[in-house]
Amino acid sequence: MTNQRIIEILRHGQPDQTVTIQGWVRTKRDLKNFAFLEVNDGSSLANLQVILEATLPDYETSLKQINNGSSVAISGVLVPSEGKNQRIELKAQNLTIYGDADPTTYPLQKKRHSFEFLRSISHLRSRTNTFGAVMRVRNACATAIHQFFQEKGFLWVHTPIITASDCEGAGELFTVTNFNLDKIPKNKENKTDYTQDFFGKKAYLTVSGQLQAEVMAMAFENVYTFGPTFRAENSNTSRHLAEFWMVEPEIAFCDLEGDQNLAEEFLKYIFKYVLEKCPEDMEFFDQRIDNSVLETADNIINNEFARITYTEAIKLLEKTDQKFEFPVEWGVDLQSEHERYLAEKLFKKPVIVTNYPKEIKAFYMRLDEGEKTVSAMDILAPKIGEIIGGSQREERLDILERRIQELNLNVEDIWWYLDLRKFGTVPHAGFGLGFERVVQFMTGMANIRDVIPFPRTPLNADF
Ligand code: 4AD
Ligand code: MG
Question: What is the mean pLDDT of the chain?
Fold first, then answer.
């Protein structure tokens, strides 16, 4: 007999049906002539209640071995439940204990643990209600993303993780080397000689797959990449990771407006999909984590996002009585307090801000008329701030070359990127969605470290 997933049994199981489950015991209640177990196999938030009767062979010894965290296989018959918490439960006929879990040392006890504590046991925290729900929602988000783009005929392309170019130019790169760090080769000027390194030049972990996605869009029109990206940003905030996943579509024959439209449709699609696939988990977040989760989801799906230019945003920020830590004037980069004010307080929904000053944005963004701003767009979400960053790309060779010179960038590393503007250039645009930020936004989890299984942050690469 093959085993069944608990979610299927809870949804469709019928009385008298014989089933086998496998999983981990969440709780045990030892009564006089029988015991109740709550068993979870990760397929759903709800556990399956199992009744062990004293007539089971080796009942007494088995029961001693079973504790919170023990792993078991149980076969038996489904019966209607007398309790009001569940429709159906399992009457055990056969019990296998794979592994016990010593109650004096097993860290997950039947009480509320803080998220800080759970981070210190990341290898076990997925066995809790909250992290189970987070990981299922995360999975549904990823599936929604692929489904959205596949339905639209976008090609999923795989961009490299090791690269020689700094796409964002923000200097947040992790270097990739196989030098013996105690014996680094030097050149005549006594500087590190990268020609002797593995790639013969300086190489990094990618901060974004965009430049290579642009290459692919110039052949396939509509593409997306979805992979890990890395930033050596030394910021210990609730929204930054050193390793995070990014979704980056790139669309040929598209301008900034088309880019915004796609991004808005995309976010709405993800929310709708997750609500449909994970209703219990989303209900759980609403009840236990943040009671605006379902309202927010509804708001995203059913309302149009606000759209303003950076210049309008600055005016709105200058007009308000709200005190900010960072002063506002035209030309400054928006800080997260500004972003949150706009999305959370003023518009009470996501806001797309466009046309930022060129000085605070990356070299590849298309220069607007007047040459003060670029065709950038950021989507700001309540509680999170920036969730998407994108732009129309500079497709005009002469202007791109000028920008590269102005910013003192190294043309040798991106000659191939310039080639795209020499051979069949077209207007194009794209954006990057921070995958963990959308999971955070959706679940209401306060800290980004709690929406990825193994967070990487400054001074932390455990597990
Ligand atoms: O705004 P960013 O830097 O844009 C890019 O990298 C572009 N190349 C994207 C593109 O146009 N194809 O990053 C995109 C998104 C941000 O809006 C944010 O959601 C997320 O990535 N992000 C982070 N998420 C977690 N931790 C960090 N340290 C992040 N940095 C950016
Ligand atoms: Mg950005």
Answer: 96
Label residue 439 exposed, middle or buried (CB < 10 Å: 0-12, 13-18, 19+). Answer: buried
- For ligand 1, atom 30, the nearest C-alpha belongs to 240
Quickly list DSSP for 97-124.
EEE---TTT-S--SS---HHHHHTTTTT
Domains detected in the chain: 2-106 (2.40.50.140), 127-171+207-450 (3.30.930.10)
Neighbours of ion ligand 2 (CB under 5 A): 389
Mutate to test the pocket of ligand 1, among 154, 437, 440, 449 (most ligand atoms within 8 A of CB): 437
How far CA 204 is from CA of 117, 162, 172, 414, in Å, comes to 33, 6, 10, 14
Residue with tokens 């001074």: 459
* Longest CA–CA separation in the chain, Å: 85
Centre of ligand 1 to C-alpha 112, Å, is: 33
Give the pLDDT band of residue 367 (cuts 50, 70, 90).
very high
Q: Which secondary structure element, helix H or strand E, spans residue 24, and what is its range?
A: strand 18-30
User: Over 80: is that where the pLDDT of 1 sits?
Assistant: no
pLDDT in tens, 253-281: 999 999 999 999 999 999 999 999 999 99
Q: Is the pLDDT of residue 79 over 80?
A: yes
Ligand 1 atom index nearest CA of 432? 9
Pocket test for ligand 1, best of 154, 207, 246, 437 (most atoms within 8 A of CB): 246
CA of 262 to the centre of ligand 1 (A): 17
- Alpha-carbon distances, residue 15 vs 47, 50, 74, 87, 222 (angstroms): 17, 14, 16, 10, 50
- Give the pLDDT confidence score for residue 2 in this predicted structure: 67
* Mean pLDDT for the stretch of residues 8-22: 96
373 in Cβ contact with 365 (< 8 Å): no
The answer to whether the CB of 243 falls within 8 A of the CB of 228 is: yes
The per-type count for the chain, helices as H runs and strands as E runs, is: 13, 16
